[in-house]
Predict the 3D structure of the following.
Amino acid sequence: MTSSWRLVDNRSAIDESAVGAWSRRGVMAGLLGCGACGAVGMPSAGSSDDVSTPLKRASTLPIGCCMATGDLADAPLLALIKRNFSQITPSYEMKMGVILGPDGKCRFDAGDQLAAFAQANKMRLHGHTLVWYNIQPAYFAALTKDAAAFSRAYRDYITTVVGHYRGMVSGWDVVNEPVAPDGNGLRDSLWSRQLGADDYIATAFEHATSADPGAIAFLNDYGMEANATKRRTFLALVERLLKRGVKIGGIGTQTHISVDLAPGAAASAIADLASLGLPLHVSELDITVGRGRAASDAALATQAQRASEVVDAYMRLPASQRYAITLWGARDRDSWLRKPPYDPASDRPSPFDDNGRPKPMLAAMISSLKSRQ
Ligand code: G3I
């Protein structure tokens, strides 16, 4: 698939070898970040004791992790995040369900705590997410009979939130998970019903890129590794929107995968999703070993192989397309997959174990990052 597209503000790609940043803001954060983490010389490729290398120092590529305000009281987790990650994504606090009250007013205290943490630790901040089928607040539901009022509220919400964090985020997941789970068409949602299937997306990107032209505007989805139909539908949607002149600045592929995923599937998905030439964000990487299944050594070894496959494929992309790789949970116990309704007991989808100790997945990621600058 090819398409002519232009960057949001004709920003040229930042040379990855310099600062591993992407947006104007990212350049400063990247420079500050490098200063902060003392990444003076890059570790030699394939150095023996990989897990002693902080993940963020294995490459100039921003390596992210999701965070919640509850994590701010967990000192061991904070230390692990500061040591290993150069970017954070609030897993919950910058979503409409937290920000927008029933009175239509926006409250930012939760998200601001994480924005302050990122700034204090010279980490990039990725905004997640402005519009999602999964969150349909009562305030909007009450406006469905008045199309003009709904559109105004939609504009005002996006403009207010993006404006509040203007200058603080390197990118936004403007719309999350627009494609139907099986990949056949787009999701039905309050937003698509009220504003139109493609139009709610186009309008969201219009408002977001107007409110902060310096933040890269991403369309983010999941399940595009095992389901090629979903990937094709997603890519067709992006291409259709780009042709309309929608300022999509990047693609987010969540990459919630399993040890059971066929070898090569994740790499193929990354290459395919990068085919439009847009920056790509591996935005929510975790690798489940399966609900209720003991994480055998074999399963953890397969998990490490899948992680290497993702990182190797990502690092083969042109530097101009490498936005970041973000883990959706640093330690196994922090994962969404360990919370209801999933498996609170056993899943081990993350690079660090419940006690913050490195797993084979971490060593594999570090080794792959080091080997491909
Ligand atoms: O913080 C409150 C706590 O005060 C309260 O006692 C507790 C019980 O109600 O809820 C806590 O908030 C929960 C929050 O996670 C904690 O971080 C919310 O109920 C819960 O809904 C929220 O779940 C998040 C979920 O998205 C829905 O927003 C998960 O953390 C987050 O990992 C998950 O992330 C999604 C991505 O946004 C999109 N891709 C899939 C991914 C996994 O589902």
User: Anything to note?
Assistant: The chain is about 40% helix and 15% strand. The first strand starts at residue 63 and ends at 67.
